[in-house]
Design goal:
The protein has helices spanning 8-37, 40-62, 66-98, 135-142, 149-159, 176-188, 203-217, 234-242, 296-305, 315-323, 343-349, 368-379, 385-388; strands at 101-102, 106-107, 120-129, 161-169, 191-197, 218-227, 231-232, 250-256, 286-295, 329-332, 356-357. It has 391 residues and is of the alpha/beta class. The strands form 3 sheets. It has a 7-stranded mixed sheet with strand order 5-4-3-6-9-8-10, with helices on both faces. Strands 1-2 form a two-stranded antiparallel ribbon. Residues 73-100 form a coiled coil.
Length: 391
Amino acid sequence: MRGKAVSGKAILVLCLASFLAGSLITSRTWTSQSHNNNHPIVNHVTASNKLGEFDHKLRKLGEGKAEDIMGEVSKTHKAIQSLEKTISNLEMELAVSRMSSVGNGVTLQKPRSYSNHTLQKAFVVIGINTAFSSRKRRDSLRQTWMPTGEKLKKLEKEKGIVIRFVIGHSATTGGVLDKALDKEEAEHKDFLRLNHVEGYHQLSTKTRLYFSTAVSMWDAEFYVKVDDDVHLNLGMLATTLAQYRSKPRVYIGCMKSGPVLSEKGVKYHEPEYWKFGEDGNKYFRHATGQIYGISKDLAAYISINSPILHRYANEDVSLGSWLIGLEVEHVDDRSMCCGTPPDCEWKAQAGNICVASFDWSCSGVCKSVEKMKYVHNSCGEGDSGIWKSDF
């Protein structure tokens, strides 16, 4: 600025006044702090103590037991798995809402489990594949490992385990076979009736329809299929499945890879053998048909895509083909395919109770009607096994 110059004496007086004002303000500030916070030195000591406590906690965490640290890591891992399953469920619901048709005008039905939240909740639905001629087999199960009457209802209510014999109808609807089944159903109330014509060469269709129907009736975490000539320990099954409840997509059973049989007239002949490469090739890995289980998302996937899922001659191969191209965890659990006594008996005595027992030579318990009680007494977990299971 241009103007009259200020004298040196005036500048000296201005500086002195500024110094005195600053001293006064500083004095008042220190006094105020002294009254409110005792003393600056004391505050410094308190802060030092807090830092010391924090440092002590860090040291304690660093010096913690390995098992405690691993426990925290395990909890975090489980939380991540739970989040993955939640995301998978949301993805499936989104797919259901988006997918109303697939090419060529094929309409897909939305499973009620994703649109109706009033469905009965369950831990697992167990469908026992049976036929019209298998009344004695069904009775052998009711007399051994399968609860009946009020116990069956209690099992559903308290443990979330639903068990039903799965069957369709005869070629002549309302005939003698259907009426006999109606009478049996009225007596035991343990059937899941499908809109399906029974027949050996229709097992792939029946399996597909079973999962679709079960999903529309129960909102379960797992869906299991088992044959009516297999011995099952319900407690061990539930405990085994519970290990995978945080996984989004699980396919569990005894995985195998049998030969593709191209010769006509032989059992398990595969008419579409040419799809699997050269003669002598094997199928892709899949669970054996006596018993297997899948998680909720996979059952919903089958229900959604049911009209366009290809059916091979063998039911277990068909199911494996539906899942082979998906992001699915295949669990090979050999406790689900133990032999009958003495195999399952030795394992039970050693504390390794089997989930399921059957004879490979018969694709089930050989002469199951006569032998099921014997297998149950030798290899069963006990009638209280399922009620003592914590899952």
